[in-house]
């Protein structure tokens, strides 16, 4: 019996339990009362609509389930950003579905809602997969209109993307299943095809109250912009549906007739499960983020048959580079080794730190994967690049820049899993969100920040105490400890994987045992989009 293994397992399974509990609350949207009121109108909830639309017993992944988590408390919160986004299969075809959750502020758009919708469109554009919009929204959340209306990453970008996606030949289908108001009315009508549910769906630039105020006309919403009006008089919508299920059946019928797609041609063979038990991950992964562990043991529990071919195994040991398969797909893995290692000169190197030799190795490996058209998977547990005179004199900045260059210019799809630490420039070099991974997810054990908590807290403490001294305040050891505890608590909250997921710095916090599914479905999506750009590192320091 391994006591440490058992302690780690207990801790990590409690972390997983906390994730599941948080997600169950999120899945309730606006709460039981709002759901009951929504369904009393003969409508399905956003999640029920998506479940009905997707093929039975098929795999799905949810993007941004935790978006908006604990944000906007002064406005009553915004669970899941008021919109549900899932990738799944309709008539065997992989699609992404965006469904407004009308139980959350009548489906109104908060700033994070716009960001999440744009992320869904980004996934559709990058992978050229069909996107389905299930519209049920009151439009922009007016108390925050200044944070959602005018800028490049705000509400209007959605409709610009509609037009760009149409020109790219990406299928867009919309169903108006509730309110669809003002600027939001353009989204379904800029789709290839739009349907509207009779009596519950409505679409107009201005509702009856605003029409009355603006031009003095008395008219009810159904006559103004209901299904009969737009299917028989205006011609704005293409199909009238009897109810939610009828609309969703129509979407299935249309998607089922879409032709096959041009493939990127990523290599795939018959999938094999890992030989090593994936459940062991919970015991291998240490409770404390500063403790060592063997990253190869994690890789063995993610890859097919627990087999991988390691590249330059005995060089640049703080980064592991390896060819493997995940669910049959060929992948190149770039992972941070978390054990202290020795290089050929018998020098100690800290685990989780990127040194010049490991950066050079990773750069070359990334280039090799681009040459061979092999998707890249980054497993992050990184505290940053090595510092100090020896590293600086050895050119750590130019070597790190080479790795960042390779990650930035990579043309094969990239997927990032944040297992533990994701600090500073290490986040960048290991394909953080800013480097366009097709999907980026975190385990409950993840931590994201510009630097580790203890180092940051000490720096912030020095700044805070210096400021108080300038104001003439005496700093006692007790006060210093009180300030430090406050800083640490705040910093710890901000480095949480949930804080990152709430702001869509990651696509999800996931059960580690679902890692294979996320990567496999991600590569399948990427296979819809042939690589059109040539790999070119540009100018690099040698």
What descriptive keywords fit this protein?
542 residues, alpha/beta, 8-stranded mixed β-sheet, 20 strands
- Envelope shape: globular
Uncertain segments of ≥5 residues (pLDDT<50)? none
Helix share, percent: 25-40%
Say how many strands there are: 20
Q: What value does the Rg take, in angstroms? A: 25 Å
- Largest sheet: number of strands, sense, barrel closure: 8 strands, mixed
**Overall pLDDT metric:** 93
Number of helices: 20
N-C termini distance? 50 Å
Q: Structural class, judged by helices and strands? A: alpha/beta
- Give the DSSP E fraction (strand runs of 2 or more residues): 15-25%
What this model shows, in words?
It contains 20 helices and 20 strands. It is of the alpha/beta class. The strands form four sheets. Strands 1, 2, 3, 4, 5, 6, 7 and 8 form an eight-stranded mixed beta sheet that branches. Strands 9, 10, 11, 15, 17, 18, 19 and 20 form an eight-stranded mixed beta sheet that branches. The chain has a two-stranded antiparallel sheet with strand order 12-13. A hairpin with a 7-residue loop joins strand 9 and strand 10 (319-326). It starts with a helix and ends in a 16-residue tail after the last helix.
Short structural description:
The chain has 542 residues and is an alpha/beta fold. It has 20 helices and 20 strands.
List the helices and strands and how they pair.
Layout: H1 3-26, H2 32-39, H3 46-53, E1 61-63, E2 83-90, E3 93-100, H4 111-127, E4 131-137, H5 156-168, E5 172-181, H6 186-189, E6 193-197, E7 202-204, H7 208-215, H8 221-225, H9 227-233, E8 239-241, H10 244-255, H11 281-284, H12 295-300, E9 308-311, E10 319-326, E11 329-336, E12 341-342, E13 348-349, E14 353-354, H13 356-372, E15 376-382, E16 384-385, H14 389-393, H15 396-409, E17 414-423, H16 424-429, E18 439-442, E19 447-449, H17 453-470, H18 477-494, H19 497-502, E20 508-509, H20 515-526
Parallel strand pairs: 3-4, 4-5, 5-6, 5-7, 6-8, 11-15, 14-16, 15-17, 17-18, 17-19, 18-20
Antiparallel strand pairs: 1-2, 2-3, 9-10, 10-11, 12-13
Helix pairs in contact: 4-5, 13-15, 17-18
